[in-house]
Amino acid sequence: MSTPGLLLVVTVAVLYSGGFYLLLQRSLMRVVLGIIMLGHAANLSLMLTDEAITLPPLLGGPDGAISDPLPQAMALTAIVITFGVTTFLLALAYRVWLGDDNDEVPDDLEDRRIGRLREPEDSS
Amino acid sequence: MNLLIAVPFVVPLLGAAVALLLRRAPRAQRVSSAVTLAVVVAGAVLLLKATASGAVVATQAGGWAAPLGISLVVDPLAALLLLVSSVVLLLVLLYAVGQDISGLSRAMPQVFHPIYLVLTAGVCLSFIAGDLFNLFVGFEIMLTASYALITQALTRERVRASMIYTVVGLTSSILFLTGISLVYALTGTVNLADAADKLGAAPAGLRMVLALLFLVVFGIKAAVVPMHFWLPDSYPVAITRISAIFAALLTKVAVYAIIRTQTLLFGRDDVSVVMLWIAIATMVVGILGALVQDDINRIMSFVLVSHIGFMIFGLALNTVAGIAGVLIYLVHHIVVQATLFLVNGLVRQYVGHTSLRSIRGLTAVSPVLALFFFLPALSLAGLPPMSGFIAKVALFQAGAQAGGWLVWTALGAGVLTSLLTLMAIFRVWIRAFWGTPLPDMLEARAELRRGPDVAGRRIMAVTTGAMVGVGLTVTVAAGPLAELAFTAAADLLDGGAYIEAVMEEGPS
């Protein structure tokens, strides 16, 4: 594999691991950032499917060889989708922040209820 | 014939545009949305007629031949699901119209109608997409519409619920995209029929990894244990019409995607054992969750999770009988879940909530409502002669034919789940419908009968009744339905007709 390809592989790996790490955080802002990183990772991995990634699409390189346009078309669609939904997510995170004055993901309601059920036994 | 395939996708999108233009004329908007969905139902009927014998119809959008162009394919499975989904979508829309007329809902109808139609388009595209990327696009259209719908009538609780829902949905979409890029890297195609051929030649290990990845992707959306945690947190919080349509369709579209990918792309025994374990866990964990809840909507959500397990079980068997059982179960479950959520919406009229703690004696308050709950609930629990019973018998027979200790364990889990479902249903029945009604419920009833918004309430009640009727029709029509399901299952497991139809359909 060529050097740019290897570089892309490393980038994709870093984006995936960083994205999932952020996704597991409690702050919604970090969750959104994690989603953004994961989106980039998925789009880049679409680009990675083409070995001739360094060549321009359609117009062709020195000897007329071109890179595969299909992953680029798919990545374009996917970028639009992830971008749109991320914007929506940001708006939602803002609403959470307006309501609660912080953007922490709250505890699970059921979990807290079960916790309360146990408390009397502990104190007796 | 070729143009007909695009109808379920194109018509609702056009309808959405019209509904958006008509946002200042609510009456015209209601009519146009209902007509749009009626056209989709008619198109689905014609498609089912064309494919009922097991034929597969395909068309290439844009006129590019198969592996390059965008294929739209309808086989008996897709046609059957298109028909059931569009009927349920139409009825829920009418229910929503009734709710809007009665002024009960805080959702904005001018926003609701267009998004609802876009959701319809997404659901239909997912069923007819002939390649992975369009399946992804169909999913995204459906999910994006659902993100917008679940944030209708925002309260603090709903903001939190929709946040969970959106993040989980987006995560599964990104994994889906990753899966697509891996399939493309391996085979150089995203066309389902083409990839099915080429994946057959791929190393078994790689195929297994991909099969598992797609199982996780769709498993998150279908809420199979252990990826189910988000569903009971987000569905019950949304307003009635939306939780009804989500519970009926969104998880089922994911189940459809699991069926499609696992039979066509990966085939045979790649992940059968894993799916059996998932099925057992889903059935048992889901139903145990349902037993400890005290909100009817939450109970129904957990039952929904648990019954997804039955479908995964049938699919894991990988036999014609098993998959036919899954199809019957899918049809039955789509109708029954929608009905129950609509009934819960009607219950909310009397008491303002659906918590079992302060509902009593609904039978005395409204006998019709009790009947509306009772019939689908019996079907859900799988008592004869309801449709749920027929579906379960089909599944259990298929399991008994397949044999093996793991399958028998799953069968045991299935029987246990059915009994526990019955228990959960009767818990609701005894606590909410039995006994003497609370005084303020009688007051609420008197007020409901007098109010200026009776017309809208009547529409709500009638559409719920119609939904119950559809459920009974599924029971009565079990014979033809089973025949169709076996045809569709044979088609799915064979795969030849599908691949042939797509690859040989030249530019149109």
TrEMBL record, chain A:
Keywords: Cell membrane, Membrane, Transmembrane, Transmembrane helix. The keyword Cell membrane applies. Belongs to the CPA3 antiporters (TC 2.A.63) subunit C family. The chain crosses the membrane at residues 6-24, 31-53, 73-94. GO terms for cellular component: plasma membrane. The keyword Transmembrane applies. InterPro entries: CPA3_antiporter_subunitC, NUOK/Mnh_C1-like. It is found in: Cell membrane. It is a multi-pass membrane protein. This is Multicomponent Na+:H+ antiporter subunit C. Its main location: membrane. Coiled coil: none annotated.
TrEMBL record, chain B:
It is a multi-pass membrane protein. One of its GO terms (cellular component) is plasma membrane. GO terms for biological process: ATP synthesis coupled electron transport. Keywords: Cell membrane, Membrane, Transmembrane, Transmembrane helix. The keyword Nucleus does not apply. It comes from the Bacteria. It comes from Lipingzhangella halophila. It holds the Pfam family Proton_antipo_M. The chain crosses the membrane at residues 6-22, 34-57, 77-98, 110-129, 162-186, 206-231, 238-259, 271-292, 359-383, 403-426, 459-482. GO terms for molecular function: NADH dehydrogenase (ubiquinone) activity. It is found in: Cell membrane; Membrane. This is Multicomponent Na+:H+ antiporter subunit D. The keyword Ribosomal protein does not apply. Belongs to the CPA3 antiporters (TC 2.A.63) subunit D family. Residues 129-417 form the NADH:quinone oxidoreductase/Mrp antiporter transmembrane domain. PANTHER family: NA(+)_H(+) ANTIPORTER SUBUNIT D1, NADH DEHYDROGENASE.
